Amino acid sequence: MVQKTAQAIADVIGLEVEVADCNFIRIAGTGKYHTQFGELMNAGFVYKHVMETKQLILIEHPGFHVLCEPCPNYRHCPEQTELAAPLILHGKAVGAIGLVSFTPEQSQHFFQNKEWMIQFLTKMAELIVSNLSCVEQEEQSVKAAPNLNLASLEKETIRRALAEVKDEARKTDRTDKAASLLGISRATLYRKIREYNL
Question: For the chain, how big is the Rg over CA atoms in Å?
Answer without folding.
Answer: 29
